[in-house]
Every structure is written in structure tokens, then in C-alpha cells.
Amino acid sequence: MKIVWATLLAAAFSAGAAAQEFTPDPVDEAAAKREGMVTWYTSTPVAAGQHIATEFEKRTGIKVEMLRTGGQNVIRRFLQEADAGRINVDVITMSDMSAANAMTRRGLFVPFKPTGFDKVLADAKDANGNYIAQRLTLVGMLVRTDKVTAGDHPKVWADLMQPKYKGMLVMADPSFTAIQLVMVATLSKHIGWRFYEALRKNETMIVQGHEQIFDMVKRGERLVAAEASDPRIYTGGVMPPNIINIIPTAGAIQVPSPTAIIKGSPHPNAAKLFAQFNLLPEIQHKFTEEGHHSPRMDVRPPPGLPTLDQVQLYPIDYDYIEANTRQLKAKFAEIFQ
To answer: Cα separation of 183 and 273, whole Å?
Structure first.
């Protein structure tokens, strides 16, 4: 499945009449409260994840047990348990649509169309409700404006191949974070592996995840993030005064983070209530305040970032990622060993 996000909005709005006829799947809130808790495996940024868990517990009285780690670790942990026949989790949120598609085919998710499902972009959800994107990440390049002159700011991904960036770059490991796996798969197809070979020559630092990228740039140990989430994710919605987030003028990359309810989970009713809670407009506004786009068409984009129809986005081939995940990680490790 190839996705070109820039074409989605017009088609989505043309379906308005059909959307009015949508009836959400029921949620038994009383049964959810009797269950009393929900277990959530997630790669949601720490502050946002804690906010969601706290607000859900405050409003419903249902405790959220959250395991928060990188997207690839979330997937690995769940699949190990599923393969062993031990389902300990109710809801999973990751950033790898290829993995979500594969797990859907295995029948590991419960189809569920909550309130607001009809407001979600078509390619940010499974048509049958097996998963729905919790948030969208428009990947950019962070630059320290007090250390890098405006004339030296990169505009597109290929700019980072220039020798002038030697010793300045940092990026994440695709074996830990699913967002970087999507990046590596997409850029190696559109630019070629020569892109990463050039970044290796530029002595790019590899760190575990995107919070570590932000920390390296914030502390000045590296001045340019070769790929990064919006820094507001880690600052409570406040853009640091000496850092900018540059979205490439061509070939931008948008990564959805699907949420799914696990079949055979310990707390099935609480799982539905929690999954629906993640899609509420007030929770989605929290994400946009911190630099994420919402999958909902009725939620405005983050301040200072373009709408999805204002950028030229690379298509993402999730079938290719699913078929080549191991090879992509191995090739990246070979280059940066």
C-alpha cells in the first residue's frame, strides 16, 4: 500500500454526505469501569502518554498501566507475547503501519470504529477499524540557529550529504524507533543508499530515539538533526528560541502512529473506551499543541507547521517496509557500524 498524503484532503471532504450517516460502534462504559484498568504498550512521547493516562484515569476512574518504549520495541514485545499465547496488553500504539497491516492480517486486532472514526483521514486508519492513527508525525530537520547561519540551513534531505555538515549531524536508530525505519526505507528508495553513505562520511552520530536527538541538539553536542520530531513534543509545546524545525520543501515524510485493540485482551471494554479517548478532539488538540498533526480532518495543524496539502510528500510503501524490515535495519547497521 503506497500512501501520498497530499492528495487525501480533497477526497476526504467529498465524502461528507456519507460521513453524516456514520454510526460508531458501542462502548460499554459500565463494563469498562468494572474491569478497572487498561494495559497500554506505546511509543507515544513520554509527556503526551502520561497526560493521556492521567486524564483517562481522572475522567473514568480506570487505571492505565503504561509500557512506554520505542516503536520497534513495542512491536517486538507484543509479538513475543502473542506468539507465546500470552496476551497481557489491551491497547497498542506504534509508528509502523507496515507492522500494523501485518498484524491485521494475522487477526491480532479487534475491529472497532469509535466516535470520530468518520473524521479520520482514510489512509490514517484501517477501513474495517482494525487500527486508527493516534497522531501523525511530519518529520523535519532540527537546526541550532545560534550556531548555524541561515545560509547553511538544509532545505531538502539531500543537502545533508554536503561535507560542510561533517561532525554536525545526529539521527536515530531504525532498530529502536519505527519512525526512523520508515525514513530509512523511504529515503533509501528515493535518494538511494548513497544518502546514508554520505551521512556516514559526515560522521553522523546515531542515538537510540528522537528524544535523544532533541537532547543532543539542545545541548549543542550536534547542531543539525538529520531527521527529527518537532521539538515541542519534549518541551510541553514551547518551541526553543534557538532551534527551528525545517520541513523539506520537497519529499517531506509523514508517519502515522496506529493504535489498535488487542484480540483476547484482559480488559476488552476498557480497551475500547481508552482507544476512543485517544481520538477525542481535546486529546488531539494536545498533540497539535506539541507539534504533531492530527489524523482528524476537523483538527487544525500545529502552529507554524504546514497543512498536509501544503507540502510535497514522498509516498510511503508499507508493503516494501514489511517485506524488507530486516534487510533495511541490517544495511543501515552495516553503513554506520
So the answer is: 32
